[in-house]
Each structure stands twice: as structure tokens, then as C-alpha cells.
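Q: What structure does this chain adopt?
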Amino acid sequence: MLELIPPTRLRQKRISTLLFGVFAFLLLSSASANENRASVTLGAAPFETYVSNDGEPARLNAIVSEAFDSTELDIRLHVMRDAFLGSALLTGKIDGEFAYVNLGEDNSQFILSDIYLPLYLYAVSKRDNVNHITLFPHLKDNRVAIENRFANTPELRMLKEVKWSRNPSTFDAFRQLADERAPYLITSQLLAQEFNTLLTDTKGARIYFSQKPLVVTGFRLAINKNVSDANRIIDAFNAAINKMQNDGRFNKLLARPWLTKDVDGDGIADFIGSASTTHKSHTTHNAYSLDGKPTATGSRYFIDNQPYTSLSDAQKALPGENEIPASTSLLDATTYQKLIRSW
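A:
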């Protein structure tokens, strides 16, 4: 039996059908958009002032998060104990690392980003004669404090002439130096500078650096090759990092007044500052290099992405010393207080 539908009901049915079609289209569009968004989890082990998940200063978390904030990519950072990091990678619980450092390990299963933050490992000491050291053999037969994260790598395990004093944390490594159980410590340039800030403010003392870094490497993203969007993620990350390094955001994220990098591609490193972290009185002497290239008389100065041909011109764009907060160490002063007092 054929049912005749009244015009009113027919219009309602057509409207319902139209609304259903619109809803279905939006749902499919949303699903398609979500498919195009990479949902990737990257892990890292805690590393003082670099990686943290408990509210402590964490430069790498901040850098990687800001880089991905400028993309449409859905990237999640997960901080876990070093003992669990390897198994999480093997089982696929995470898709890669966001603080990967290559010290001789096999990385053939990963697609790597460019180095986004160089890592310079120096020998440091209470004694100023450490500045004569340029090679690991110069430390032969000496006890040298070091964190496990560096000691347990193929590159450093091969150094049999050095008597390593291994430590589970940054604090323990510096305590070896403070207590003089080890006359030397291998640590990063940034960590040693943070410790010097605490030491100088409290005791008016300092630790001394080897003449040059004994290891030069850097932090990268490492994403498993099985991740479908790995290359796109790496490319987007590299582009974002390059922009952040050049426009002064890295100064703020690293809490460093001056950085150096070849911004204009002439083979000579330029100086990078920001009005948020750099004041007129900051010297360029301890500028942190982002690419390892040397500065020269032809180096330019970039303040928040604006170029200047001389330091004096650049300083005109910077605030006075009292116009920005005084820099403090990213190391926790309370944690290191007893160690510093016994120096």
C-alpha cells in the first residue's frame, strides 16, 4: 500500500536528510583532518636543567614544545626513567626521543633531525691548570667524575686510560668534584656555567674549563622510521628551530644573553641577542655557539631578528642592566646549598 506523505512532513524529512548530510560531511572532514595530523609520542630521560616533568627548569622540553606549537602536528612529550626509555622504544610505546644524543650508538632505525642544541662536554676542575687539557689522554690515570648517561656510551666506554667515577645524577657528579674525590668532572658547558653562577654568587669562587670541549655532539629528535609522518615531522621541526634560533626566542628558552650562529650564511657566526634576556652590559665573551662556527670581525649582531653591523649599534636596541631581571642559575639553589657551602 502506497503511503502519501503530506507536504509538511515531506519538507521536514528533506530538512532532516539535509542536516544529516551536513553532519556526516563535517564528521568525515574532521576524521580526515585528524588523519592528516601526526599523533606521535616522543620520550626522554630526566636530565637536570634540560629535561624534566616535575616543574623544574627543562630547556629541551621548552624548546621542542615551542617548535611544535608553531605547526599543526600533534606531538606529545613523555619523560620517563632512563631504564624504561629503551624498552619503551623497542615495544613501540613511544615513537622516538626528543633529547637524543649520539655517542656511538646504532641509530639506523631512526630518522634524525638536525642538531637543535649543541652539547659541548668539557673537563672542569677546581684547579686552573685544567685549561691545558685538550684531549682525553691528558686525563690519563686521573679519577674523573661523570654522569652515567655519558659514561655508559660506546664512545666513552672505549677510553680505558681514564678512571671514571660514575654517577647517577648531575648533583652526584658535582659532589664528587666538590668533595675532591675526583679532581676532574666531565659535564656540559651549560651545566658548568649554571654551577659557576651559584658558586660565584655564594662563595666568589668558580670552576675552570678545559681549553676546548673534549666531546662535541648535540640534541636531536630521533623518530622511528616506521612512523608514517616521520619525515614531515622532522622537516617541520627543523624549519621551526631555525626560525627560533634566529629570532631571539632561543635566548629566552636557554636563559643565555648571547648566542652565536651563522645567520646570514656567509660562513662566519653572528651574535644573537634578545631584549628580553640581553642588556647593554652583557659581554659577548661567553656566547653559546649553536653551530660551532667561529665569529670574526665581520660578524653581525641580531637583536630579536633585527640586524646590526656593530655591537655598539646593537646595544642601542637593548635595555639597561636594571631594566630586565637579573639572571639566576637554573640549578636549584636549595638542593646545591650544602655542596656550595663546603666548597
